[in-house]
Structures are given as C-alpha cells and as structure tokens.
Amino acid sequence: MTIGFTLNREAVTVCTDPHTRLIDLLREQFSLVRAKSGCLTGDCGACSIIFNGNVAKSCLIPAFRVQDSTIITLEGFSQTEAYQDIIKGFAAAGVATCGYCDSGKILTMEAILAKDPRPRSRPDILAELRGIHCRCTEPESLVAAVQAIADRRQRRLYGRGA
Ligand code: FES
Ligand code: FES
Asked: Nearest bound ligand to CA 97?
C-alpha cells in the first residue's frame, strides 16, 4: 500500500507492506536510524518517536496506522531548542546519553514536561520513566534531570527558574 504522512515536518509518501513495523520503515526507507530496534516487544523504549503528539514505540505501530499521521523522530526533535534544554539538563544532572537509549530517554523527558512543565511528583516521574531502559543511569538521576530540564526551560522561556 502507499501511505502518506508528515515526517519531521515534511509531507512524505512510501510504498510498503501494511504490516511493516514503523521502526523498520523509518530506518530502511528514510534512513532515520536514531530510533533503534531493541526488544521489538514494547518494553525497552529504544524505538521511541513522537506519534501524533505523543511519545510512542515505533516497533508496535504497523504501517497501515501511519496514514495521515504526524511523526517526529529524534532527528527532527534534535533541531529544536526543547532538545537543547534536555541535553543540557542531562549534562547538569550527570545523565549519560548513548546511541541505544537516546530516543526513549530524550523523547520521554519531553513527554513528561509537555504534561507538566514543573513536574514535582517523584512517583509520577518514575512511573513515566518505566517505559524506557537505560542500563547505566539510576532512576534518581533521571528524576534530578527532569527537574534540571524543567528549570532550564523555565529560564529560557520566562527568564526565571521553576
Ligand atoms: S524496540 Fe520498541 S520498545 Fe523495544
Ligand atoms: S546511556 Fe544508553 S543505555 Fe544507558
């Protein structure tokens, strides 16, 4: 089938089997490789993208669901100031980044802050982070990173801390 959608702010079309996984479509047809094929069962978050405004696991999305959707991959998100907030917040909180977990970790941070620009509830933050696997970062460091990113964003947008 031929499907049309918006990918990283550009209208695209592609001809594919309707059951092709979106992760494979992105990597093989569009050479967008920052989302990784990890578990392919929805557990690790390595394949994360923003799908119609929400963070989603592209290994679980078949091509036929992509018609008329809007997708942002980490390649597209990395062009934004919001991405810079996250990268600098990670550095401030001592959180590492790597090719395997970046899509899940970075896009989940953005999803947390989109829901609440000043997240203060540790259990809520930890619950949101459950969908990603980073083998080398303590959950507490990620909670600290969320708060560092929120402060940085408040300063960038409004000239003050959270
Ligand atoms: S590869 Fe999609 S969640 Fe692990
Ligand atoms: S920094 Fe990528 S798995 Fe931990």
From this structure: 2
Pick the CATH number of 2-77 from 3.20.20.70, 3.40.1000.20, 3.10.20.30, 3.40.1180.10: 3.10.20.30
Distance between CA atoms of 22 and 122, rounded to whole angstroms?
32
Three-state SS for 155? helix
Q: What is the pTM of this model?
A: 0.93
Query: Is residue 69 lining ligand 1, measured as CB closer than 6 Å?
Result: no
Q: Which one of 107, 133, 136 would you pick to mutate in the ligand 2 pocket, going by the greatest count of ligand atoms within 8 A of its CB?
A: 136
The share of the chain scoring above pLDDT 90, in percent, equals 86
Considering the domain delimited by 81-158, tell me its CATH architecture. Answer: Orthogonal Bundle (1.10)
Strand ordering across the sheet containing 70-72:
10-15, 2-7, 70-72, 48-51, 54-57
Using 50, 70 and 90 to split pLDDT, how confident is the model at 159? Answer: confident
Nearest ligand to the CA atom of 27: 1
The protein residue with its alpha carbon nearest to ligand 2, atom 3, reads 134
21 lines ligand 1 (CB under 6 A): no
